[in-house]
């Protein structure tokens, strides 16, 4: 997080541009202050930092939009009257982005005529404070709007993900929310983990249970946190962004289990999707539909998932040359000439 002096130097061109900013803390709400008067920026920045917020600043509307292209703050404190692009035009452009629909924009203005107040609300503002600003009032208003906005985003996520096997996890692996389907899949995923996976009894027991917690006696700690193997993978993902998904090979029941990070829920929380693929059933279905042998159906299934001959050979245990022979038979039976055409037919069949 930049100090006020550093922020002003960024804006004046004596520091590198915003893309080189260090990562903002996950445990603090971020407020973007937009004002063309450095003294106002200094006062508001110091006040909000003292109240526990991380602060970004901009001296004009264009700079504010540039910052919003890089990060979505928890609220914007926006000067209504600025040279060039005023606050009303800036707010209209902010709200034109769907991801900013719940972003609270609070206007700062010396114009208390009803015409200007109405204009602020019309372009998407949620509140306004009058200049000269009273720091305590600004902090109180921002706190109320940040809390309301975070609750709304969380509610939207819950509604959107309620029918999916999705959960929200913090960086330490603690589960803050999970759908019923995710709860069920975490249990089955836990039961399918390799025997060498760390024991659930080694997990911390002091974490509070998630609102939608487990009851199975076989995995009591999974109610609060991700299973160890998932948690270790998630920690690596947060650290370097690699390993976009964690895939479990079929274990006994022939079900392939995959975990994927979809993105952030709120600052410090990530959405994880848990998927299950019944490879055995899909292979049987492909074989029945197109008159394939079991091996040909396996090859076609993995071809439809974008795997190369070498990948397919390693997955199902055969030489790439043998995979290629199976593909020749598959192409003839499907009456196609290319891998892409065969894969498209398999994907279409699987989606029906």
Distance from first to last alpha carbon: 50 Å
The main sheet comes to:
5 strands, parallel
Please mark out the parts with pLDDT under 50 across 5 or more consecutive residues, or reply none. 1-22, 195-223
The name of the CATH architecture of the largest domain is: 3-Layer(aba) Sandwich
Q: DSSP helix count?
A: 13
Order of helices and strands: HEHEHEHEHEHEEHHEEEHHHHH
Tally of strands = 10
What's the alpha carbon Rg, rounded to whole Å? 27 Å
CATH homologous superfamily descriptor of the largest domain = Response regulator
Instruction: Kindly give the count of domains.
Output: 3
CATH class of the largest domain: Alpha Beta
Helix content: 40-55%
Main β-sheet, spatial strand arrangement: 2-1-3-4-5
Q: What's the CATH topology name of the largest domain? A: Rossmann fold
* Structure classification: alpha/beta
Shape: elongated
β-strand amount: 15-25%
Average pLDDT rating: 77
């Amino acid at each position: 997080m930049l100090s006020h002096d550093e922020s002003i130097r960024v804006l004046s061109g004596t520091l590198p541009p915003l893309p080189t900013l260090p990562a903002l803390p996950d445990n603090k709400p971020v407020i973007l202050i937009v004002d063309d008067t450095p003294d106002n920026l200094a006062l508001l920045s110091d006040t909000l930092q003292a109240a526990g917020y991380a602060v970004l600043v901009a001296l004009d509307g264009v700079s504010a939009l540039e910052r919003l292209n890089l990060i979505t703050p928890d609220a914007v404190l926006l000067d209504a009257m600025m040279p060039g692009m005023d606050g009303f035009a800036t707010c209209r452009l902010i709200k034109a982005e769907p991801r900013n629909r719940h972003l609270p924009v609070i206007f700062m203005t010396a114009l208390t005529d009803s015409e200007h107040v109405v204009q602020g609300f019309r372009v998407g503002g949620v509140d306004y404070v009058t200049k000269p600003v009273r720091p305590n009032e600004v902090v109180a208003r921002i706190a109320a709007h940040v809390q309301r906005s975070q609750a709304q985003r969380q509610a939207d996520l819950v509604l959107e993900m309620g029918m999916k096997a999705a959960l929200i996890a913090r960086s330490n692996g603690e589960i803050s929310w999970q759908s019923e389907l995710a709860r069920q899949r975490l249990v089955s995923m836990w039961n399918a983990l390799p025997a060498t996976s760390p024991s659930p009894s080694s997990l911390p027991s002091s974490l509070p249970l998630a609102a939608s917690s487990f009851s199975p006696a076989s995995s009591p700690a999974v109610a609060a946190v991700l299973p160890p193997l998932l948690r270790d993978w998630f920690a690596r993902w947060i650290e370097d962004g690699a390993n976009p998904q964690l895939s479990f090979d079929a274990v006994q029941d022939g079900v392939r289990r995959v975990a994927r990070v979809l993105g952030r829920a709120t600052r410090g929380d990530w959405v994880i999707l848990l998927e299950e693929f019944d490879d055995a059933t899909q292979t049987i279905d492909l074989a029945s539909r197109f008159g394939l042998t079991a091996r040909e159906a396996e090859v076609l299934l993995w071809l439809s998932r974008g795997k190369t001959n070498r990948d397919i050979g390693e997955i199902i245990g055969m030489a790439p040359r043998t995979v290629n022979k199976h593909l020749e038979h598959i192409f003839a039976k499907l009456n196609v000439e290319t891998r892409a055409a065969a894969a498209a037919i398999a994907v279409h069949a699987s989606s029906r």
